[in-house]
Amino acid sequence: MNVTSGINHILLQILLILFPILLYHLYWGDKDLLEDKRKHKLAYGLISTVSIILCMGFAFPFHNGYLLDLRAVPLLIAFLYGGYYSGLFVTVVFLAYRYYLGGEGACIPLLVSSVLVPSMLVITPTYIRHSSRYKILLATVITICTSFLIAIITYIKLSWTHMQIKEGTLEFFIGYGIIQVFTMWITVSLIESLREKAMITYQLRQSDQLNTMSELAASVAHEIRNPLTVVRGFMQLFTENKQIPEDVKPYIGLMISEVDRTQEIIINFLSLAKPKLERIEKISVAEHIQHIKSLMYSYAILQNVDVQVVTADLPYIETDPDKFSQVLINIIKNGIEAMPSGGELKISVKESKDMAEICIKDQGVGMTEEEVKRLGTLFYSTKTKGTGVGLMVSYRLIEKMNGQIEVKSQKEVGTQFTLKFPRIAGKQN
Ligand code: ADP
Ligand code: MG
Predict the structure, then answer these.
(1) What is the per-residue pLDDT across 244-272, written as a single tens digit (0 to 9) for each?
(2) Is 312 helix (H, G, I), strand (E, B) or coil?
(3) Which residues pair with 417 in a beta bridge?
(4) Which backbone phi and psi does 283 adopt, to 5 degrees?
(5) Is the minimum distance from the CB of 390 to ligand 1 under 6 angstroms?
């Protein structure tokens, strides 16, 4: 084979591998990848089958009955991106086709596969979860090993049957191995960049939708808040009105607490759309918590919960006081709600070198480790009247405040939330 036909042959082989992949990604790949992963895997199995048949069909017969081509690339791609069912399918097709083509070298693929297939069955399940760079590296290393394996087995077979090997055969194998590794590197890099592009486009579209939705929700929520304030004001007046019969007043109280609940939900939804700190002030953590305790007083009494505040230190922090209250109210309310038959909720304030530490501990139902891990995910709620927004908003706001949150919980014993915020020195303004 002269140099020009050699290059032609290699370019054709590379084209036969890359072209089906490009064609698939151009028309269907992105959709399958995001919506139907099984279809995507199946497609990779089919693409690899087509490529491997074409590669072998246009192989270079370098010795009588020995075929040289880049078939290892589609075979490995089938395992790595199509899963092991696709991989096994392609292996069977290629072994059958190789057997059909016949020749002295027909037994070599069987020997190579008997080592390659079990190794791929081990590597395949975890491959797809790694980062792009790691995948490219791993695929390259696998191809180096495969090329090495093919070369060794072919070399042994050749020297066995012919005793004397033509000069330059070793160099030929090395060059062929390098081309195979290079092709694999290009192919995996291409697949990874196409997958990444599909993911980014999808995420962009999603976040665009989410932004529009949350802006819409925020504007609606904002409009509802004002009439609610008016309704609450009048109901408050009714409770103080002597003309309203006393037996009706508890119902008005109930209406007020439901309006308050609605307002709280709206505030949380508003913060979900815009978790921003607006007005930064220097606040005394202990004083602020006493204030929140008085706000929560009636709710706690209703649930038969005794709220205790222990302030060992009097740290100051700089933050948005409304958002700070919102975070604490969300967590304290959850604590109270976790104790359906009453109990004690202990809030303690401490300071360390540069942090103000708030600990909120309940004697409630507690959570398992899995449940704790789910905290802060949107719409996660185990309550019939829950929204699953409170903690998500709190987590986001705490992050904005450069704070930290830790949760310790034990089923049937209770839960402890520890919040830490950067502390500032000094007394009040
Ligand atoms: P919601 O209170 O509307 O259900 P949250 O985001 O405030 O939503 O809380 C999410 C879930 O986390 C709750 O439904 C509850 O299952 C769990 N949870 C939160 N705080 C506690 C706690 N102190 N004890 C037990 N479970 C809790
Ligand atoms: Mg809640």
Answers:
(1) 899 998 899 889 988 988 888 888 888 87
(2) coil
(3) 360, 407
(4) -130, 150
(5) yes
- The Cα-based distances of 247 to 21, 243, 251, 298 in angstroms read 76, 12, 8, 19
Nearest residue by C-alpha to atom 21 in ligand 1 = 334
- Measured from the Cα of 365, ligand 1's closest atom is 25
- Could you report the per-residue pLDDT of 410-428, keeping only the tens digit for each? 999 999 999 999 999 865 4
- The alpha carbon of 216 and the centre of ligand 1 are apart by a number of angstroms equal to 26
| 211 CA to centre of ligand 1 in angstroms | 25
DSSP codes of every residue in 91-147: HHHHHHHHHHH-SGGGGHHHHHHHHHHHHHHHHHHHHTTS-HHHHHHHHHHHHHHHH
| CB of 376 sitting under 6 A from ligand 1 | no
Residue 242 identity: K
Q: pTM value?
A: 0.56
Asked if residue 387 has its Cβ within 6 Å of ligand 1, the reply is yes
**Beta strand ranges found along 201-324 (DSSP E):** 281-284, 305-311, 316-319
